Amino acid sequence: MSATRKMMAQNVPSNRVIATFPSAYNVETSPYKKNNFHPKVKTACSENRTGCVGLKICKAVLVGDVAVGKTSLVNRFCHDVFDKDYKATIGVDFEVEKFSILNTPFTLQIWDTAGQERFKSIASSYYRGAHVVIVVFDMSDEGSIASISRWMEDATASSNNPLKFVVGAKKDLVSQAACRAVEERVLDIAQSLGAEYWSVSAKTGENVQSFSFRCVSLTFDAAVLREVESSGNASQKQIGAIISRGIN
Ligand SMILES: Nc1nc2c(ncn2[C@@H]2O[C@H](COP(=O)(O)OP(=O)(O)OP(=O)(O)O)[C@@H](O)[C@H]2O)c(=O)[nH]1
Ligand SMILES: [Mg+2]
Fold first, then answer.
1. CA angle 67–124–156, rounded 5-degree value
2. pTM of structure
3. Cα 240 to ligand 2 centroid, rounded to whole Å
4. In the chain, what percentage of residues exceed pLDDT 70?
5. Model confidence over 47-78: pLDDT tens digits?
6. Is the complex ipTM more than 0.95?
7. 173 alpha carbon, closest ligand
8. Which of 95, 143, 197, 206 lies deepest, with the highest CB count within 10 Å?
9. Count of domains for the chain
10. What is the CATH number of the domain that holds 49?
11. Pocket of ligand 1 (CB under 6 A)
């Protein structure tokens, strides 16, 4: 590993270092069956062949009904804080989080959009090109479950096959029985949308880091694989060109 790259990768706090692949919340229903980094990704990272991944920024977008807990989830993950008072997001906010994954620097831009209808057109202009779409609903509010599919369809329409997650927020507000009942319903919805499901609480912090690490690891794995495969294709094209020049 080059000295500069190693320094960049090490220049993150210990809670932004990912060395092992996190598992899904519900392995059976997740569309993402990965439980480890792709062998090509591991090799590329250990041989310092991750191309521009360390320089590129991947984009995650959070969407969902008003006051379901999007900003609280972002604040718990990024700053380890929780505010019980509601402050509506105006338009869109964003955070940038730096990670070191398999000793490789990786940056995720997190776009936290407003759930209020009047900001919908502003927020939707930020969906484009998202690598990850996270639909958040409130586990204690039936109404927010009904809009999961619509949010997922709107937010993924202008992206190229992003990773998809459905997240039930405010887990601390529901009993264990109610949590199971909600999960039973929403696991089906998530599965039909081709998304992975998580239940979290920004108030207690339950599952917030596990979810975030899973999301970031899947994004990183896909980004490095794209990079490795496109550089592989490029060298194959070069070899093809050399061969055809040789033949002609
Ligand atoms: N008990 C509990 N309350 C939560 C949790 N997450 C969010 N809240 C509360 O729910 C309210 C709304 O949270 P926000 O995170 O601002 O919701 P939002 O989805 O960002 O709302 P918009 O920006 O308007 O779309 C706030 O009063 C939070 O304190 C949680 O995990 N548990
Ligand atoms: Mg908000």
1. 95
2. 0.90
3. 51
4. 86
5. 887 766 666 689 999 999 999 999 999 999 99
6. yes
7. 1
8. 197
9. 1
10. 3.40.50.300
11. 64, 66-72, 83-86, 88-89, 114-116, 169-170, 172-173, 201-203
